[in-house]
Amino acid sequence: MSTETVDAFQALADRGRREILMMVAKEKRSINAIAENFDISRPAVSKHIKILQNAGFINIEEKGRERYCVLNQDGFSEVQQWINLFEEYWTAQFRSLENYLATNVPPPKK
Amino acid sequence: MSTETVDAFQALADRGRREILMMVAKEKRSINAIAENFDISRPAVSKHIKILQNAGFINIEEKGRERYCVLNQDGFSEVQQWINLFEEYWTAQFRSLENYLATNVPPPKK
DNA sequence: TTTATATGTAACTTTTTTGTTACGCATTTT
DNA sequence: AAAATGCGTAACAAAAAAGTTACATATAAA
Questions:
Q1: Mean pLDDT confidence for B21-42
Q2: Which of A31, A46, A62, A89 has the fewest CB atoms below 10 angstroms from its CB?
Q3: DSSP state of B42
């Protein structure tokens, strides 16, 4: 795992990482607590978490020898913003459908 | 490229594929027209497009020997829905911040 | 009917990702 | 202080993804 990924979409490409985010959304969890819920080894989970952290999806709260993961909105916003770039396209599509219906389909008689 | 990917997030993991979507959002394009805008070979682009199609991001309109790519909302919706799963988390976060401010920070004197 | 164009696909090679084990280093616990 | 716990990281191995070239096929143009 090239743990230095910073790309939000690449970070989400892995099913396991998405599951980690779901888990952490339910409640703050330590790295080991997360690893217990997966089949893969703890070091592997550790790397996934680093990737998620670098991509801005989670923050780490250090507490003694434990490190708790909490969600970070940054990564989510980045994805959301990208999705929003297409907003214009869909509304244009919708308007052209609307227009088509208005000119080609007779209105329902009440 | 294991062209059979169906996972929306995996489909978006590749920068080039995201760029293809942006291009197609601007205007309907044939496979070759898309390939001309990339450094990679046409067959590589062809595979990317198949992946995007399988993941529900684009539809193909066949027209003679050409194949035009147009956006398909399905893939985008899938991503959007996943992002929305975390809605609850952020509103809870917000409410707890609100609550903190209300109980710990004095109101500004007008 | 030749020739050119648009595209798909198979067979590989190269790069990236993902995962593992082994080990090190703090911080708790006993 | 000694043992146990929580975690990071280096050094691989295995698997998946991405790209290439070579070739096949169908449609359009000459």
A1: 96
A2: A62
A3: H
Report how far residue B98's alpha carbon sits from residue B92's, in angstroms, rounded to the nearest whole number: 10
Work out the minimum CA distance from A76 to partner chain B, whole angstroms.
7
Question: Two tokens at A59?
Answer: 């923050």
Contacts of A7 (CB under 8 A, 6+ apart): A55, B13, B15
Q: Output the average pLDDT for chain B.
A: 92
DSSP reduced 3-state for A1:
coil
Domains and CATH numbers, chain A: 8-104 (1.10.10.10)
The residues with which A59 forms a beta bridge, in sequence order, are A70
Task: Please tell me the distance from the alpha carbon of residue B100 to that of residue A9, in angstroms, as a whole number.
Answer: 33
Residue B66's nearest nucleotide, by CA–C1', is: C6
* Distance, CA of B63 to CA of B44 (rounded, Å): 21
Measured between beta carbons, the chain A residues lying within 8 angstroms of B76 are: 83, 86, 90
Per-residue pLDDT of chain A (110 residues; tens, 9 = 90+): 777 778 999 999 999 999 999 999 999 999 999 999 999 999 999 999 999 999 999 999 999 999 999 999 999 999 999 999 999 899 988 888 888 888 888 776 65
Q: Is the dihedral of CA A45, A43, A6, B4 positive or negative?
A: negative
From the Cβ of B67, is strand D under 7 Å away? Answer: no
Q: In this predicted structure, what is the pLDDT of residue B109? A: 62
